[in-house]
């Protein structure tokens, strides 16, 4: 950007006095050199986890979902917990790429590419769980309204589960397209620097990107429009996921605060996952100049804010349990505190309400290892939150004679491990084969907060 | 496809190419385009480009998605196969909103992307016409059209040099 962006009050977002060519070099370097040992070890670990998941899923499809610990009282548990957890993880990516773009938060340029990739991979993991829960996943296309010889018999448009199908598939499609459009200028850059078949492949993938201003002009409007469309989309997706619960009459589910509560929880858990991933990635991929401590600091502030909103939602649930005078609501709340699963509930409250309070301290926010530990707590806490909402609300329903306990089987645990394996395998392949920093966007913010007079021999748009 | 010749001035900063483009437009030079690694703000004005029609297309695709989805859901729920589910009304309009909303977003997004690719004729088959490859990497390239037998190449070159171009090249281009 031009000199207009310089001010003594502004701190540059990118360290190291980089030039445009340095950015091209640094962003493309991980693609052009041989992968490091650490990358191979990580890939070996994640693909092993993926393999464990694949074996478990094959077994449960072969045998049926009787291999799970579900029973007639607890019909949803581990599987839907994982589904909601993974969808939530994805939401931070869209928040960073779309909402922060609309708010002109230009620090997002260093992290938006990988956060969007994370969104896409997380939604893939999420989509897996309802499909395998169907028991006969080869009939998964039955959830779509397609012309069929049975009437045609259509799907039930008044069911929240069907809304979910449309929400998740639209979210996945739009996020992928948004991500790919953002990649175009960088794919052309990779093609320019590559040789042989890689050059051919990347220039075809870049769809003939020319960087001409006639293209940029339409492209910027396209990006703005997609950001504007993705913003209400991301709110609608988790709202609809929460409808799966709140439109039912189960105490603990039937609540009007669910949509905002779920959306904030999703962003909270998603930012925790972005922090966990970025703190490792910036070290392993040597990107500390691009993903700086100031980026971590900014993300921590959003994590703290969403933690406070989630805490408010928990308190509202306690208040409503008392204020509504509804014995079932009251029991649902007490059962969380005093029931047989209460250790999960206390662990959740500790991870989501207490631990993030440490982020009030700037020292903590700018210490990557401390933030990493907090982010792991939040990841676990938010997984537990979904378990608390789903399983604890179901296992003691209106009829005490059908009260029961739920315990996950080995197959379910292996499936969860497998979904982490899928997520990390895809993420590692992404880091290796695609530019994980949006080079064209970073070049645009290089001069931000940098005094042009002190740019010392730096002739590239400094 | 017509062949034509261009004068390309290579700049090393955003400020210089923007100033040169503005000056060239004021002086009446036939500026063709600017090739930059990132969008240079103010260049639309300097090149005299008309605003993008994409918002208009986006709105149309979104409206089409909304109306088609609502029409389809009403047709299914009221005429083709009304189903009594828990005594809910067949004409339960609020229940039809979530799917209609999602498909509005889907149509608008995919339609806008398709319009963008069509406007710039982008596809895996496209071979981009680049006057200078560094224009997608670390340099800023301003091109001017040459007419006939390269008349005026000298003045254009001098003009670009005066405005901070570090390198002047003559290139063949197809458009």
Characterization of the model:
The complex is a heterodimer of chains A (462) and B (175). Chain A is mainly α and 462 residues long. Chain A contains 15 helices and no strands. Mean pLDDT of chain A is 89; it is low at 454-462. Chain B has two domains: 3-50 and 127-174, Alpha-Beta Plaits, CATH 3.30.70; 54-119, no CATH class. Chain B is built from five helices and four strands. Chain B has helices spanning 14-27, 43-47, 54-80, 93-119, 153-162; strands at residues 3-11, 31-35, 140-146, 167-174. The chains are: A mainly alpha (462), B alpha+beta (175). Chains A and B meet through helix 1, helix 5, helix 7 and helix 15 of A and helix 1, strand 2, helix 2, helix 3 and helix 4 of B.
Following the backbone from N to C, one meets helices and strands of chain B in this order, namely: EHEHHHEHE
CATH architecture verdict of the largest domain in chain B:
2-Layer Sandwich
Largest sheet of chain B: 4 strands, antiparallel
Strand percentage of chain B lies at: 15-25%
The largest pleated sheet of chain A is described as:
none
Portion in helices of chain A? 55-70%
**Which secondary-structure class do the elements of chain A indicate?**
mainly alpha
According to DSSP, the number of beta strands of chain A is: 0
Mean pLDDT of chain A: 89
Number of domains of chain A: 1
Order of helices and strands of chain A: HHHHHHHHHHHHHHH
Strand order across the largest sheet of chain B: 2-3-1-4
The top level CATH class name of the largest domain in chain B: Alpha Beta
CATH superfamily of the largest domain in chain B: BMC (bacterial microcompartment) domain
Put simply, the count of helices of chain A is 15
CATH topology of the largest domain in chain B: Alpha-Beta Plaits
- Binned strand content of chain A: under 5%
Low-confidence runs of at least 5 consecutive residues of chain B: none
């Amino acid at each position: 950007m031009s000199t207009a962006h310089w001010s003594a009050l502004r701190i540059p977002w990118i360290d190291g006095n980089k030039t445009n060519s340095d950015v091209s070099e640094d962003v493309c370097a991980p693609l052009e050199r041989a992968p490091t040992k650490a990358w191979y070890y990580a890939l070996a670990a994640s693909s092993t986890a993926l393999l464990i998941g694949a074996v478990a899923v094959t077994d449960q499809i072969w045998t049926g979902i009787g291999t799970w610990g579900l029973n007639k009282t607890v019909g949803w548990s581990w599987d839907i917990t994982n589904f909601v957890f993974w969808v939530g993880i994805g939401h931070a990516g869209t928040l960073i790429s779309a909402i922060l773009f609309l708010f002109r938060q230009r620090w997002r340029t260093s992290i938006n590419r990988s956060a969007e990739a994370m969104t896409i991979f997380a939604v893939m993991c999420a989509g897996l769980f309802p499909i395998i829960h169907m028991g006969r996943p080869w009939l998964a296309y039955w959830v779509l309204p397609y012309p069929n010889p049975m009437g045609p018999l259509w799907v039930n448009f008044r069911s929240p589960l069907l809304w979910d199908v449309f929400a998740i598939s639209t979210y996945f499609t739009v996020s992928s397209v948004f991500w790919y459009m953002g990649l175009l200028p960088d794919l052309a850059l990779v093609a320019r620097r590559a040789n042989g078949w890689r050059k051919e492949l990347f220039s075809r993938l870049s769809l003939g990107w020319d960087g001409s201003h006639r293209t940029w002009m339409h492209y910027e409007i396209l990006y703005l429009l997609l950001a504007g469309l993705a913003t209400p989309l991301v709110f609608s997706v988790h709202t609809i996921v929460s409808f799966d619960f709140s439109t039912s009459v189960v105490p603990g589910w039937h609540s009007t605060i669910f949509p905002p509560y779920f959306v904030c929880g999703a962003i909270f858990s998603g930012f925790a996952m972005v922090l966990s991933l970025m703190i490792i990635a910036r070290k392993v991929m040597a990107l500390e100049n691009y993903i700086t401590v100031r980026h971590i600091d900014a993300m921590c502030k959003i994590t703290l804010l969403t933690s406070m909103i989630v805490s408010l939602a928990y308190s509202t649930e306690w208040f409503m349990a008392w204020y509504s005078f509804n014995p079932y609501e009251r029991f649902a709340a007490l059962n969380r505190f005093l029931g047989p699963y209460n250790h999960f509930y206390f662990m959740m409250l500790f991870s989501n309400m207490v631990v993030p309070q440490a982020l009030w301290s700037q020292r903590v926010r700018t210490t990557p290892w401390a933030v990493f530990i907090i982010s792991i707590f939040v990841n676990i806490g938010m997984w537990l939150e979904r378990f608390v909402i789903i399983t604890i609300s179901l296992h003691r329903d209106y009829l005490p004679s059908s009260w029961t306990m739920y315990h996950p089987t080995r197959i379910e645990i292996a499936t969860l491990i497998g979904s982490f394996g899928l997520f990390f395998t895809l993420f590692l392949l992404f880091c290796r084969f695609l530019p994980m920093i949006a080079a064209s966007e970073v070049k645009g913010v290089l001069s931000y907060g940098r005094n042009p007079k002190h740019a010392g021999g730096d002739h590239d748009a400094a | 496809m017509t062949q034509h010749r261009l004068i390309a001035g290579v700049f090393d900063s955003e400020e210089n190419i923007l100033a040169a483009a503005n000056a060239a437009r004021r002086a009446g030079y036939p500026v063709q385009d600017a090739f930059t690694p990132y969008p240079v703000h103010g260049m639309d004005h300097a090149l005299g480009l008309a605003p993008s029609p994409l918002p208009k297309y986006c709105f149309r695709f979104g409206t089409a998605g909304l109306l088609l989805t609502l029409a389809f859901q009403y047709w299914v729920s009221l005429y083709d196969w009304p189903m009594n589910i828990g005594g809910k009304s067949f004409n339960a309009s609020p229940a039809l909103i979530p799917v209609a909303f999602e498909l509005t977003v889907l149509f608008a997004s995919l339609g806008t992307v398709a319009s963008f690719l069509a406007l710039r004729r982008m596809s895996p088959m496209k071979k981009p016409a680049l006057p200078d490859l560094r224009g997608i990497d670390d340099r800023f390239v301003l091109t001017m059209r040459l007419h006939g037998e390269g008349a005026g190449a000298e003045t254009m070159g001098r003009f670009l040099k005066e405005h901070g171009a570090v390198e002047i090249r003559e290139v063949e281009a197809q458009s």
